[in-house]
Amino acid sequence: xxxxxxxxxxxxxxxxxxxxxxxxxxxxxxxxxxxxxxxxxxxxxxxxxxxxxxxxxxxxxxxxxxxxxxxxxxxxxxxxxxxxxxxxxxxxxxxxxxxxxxx
Length: 103
Known about the structure:
This protein is mostly helical and 103 residues long. Helices cover 84% and strands 0% of the residues.
């Protein structure tokens, strides 16, 4: 019974402790946890496998976050470029002409 109560308390504490993290920190933490579990399983329960898996998982999580932010920046940049080209077209041409063009 004590183990069950202790496990419940630790679980609640761990889950609420991550509530204020940013998306980046959540991705890195998730990668580290998944990598740690995978390293533990593949390493036969060794501490080196667990730590190595956690480090690799954290690095993969950071890389995923970086690539997502790069893609979001590229999409925003494309939108602003198209808006600028449309505004430039409207400066010299009619709305009908500019609306029929592809930016």
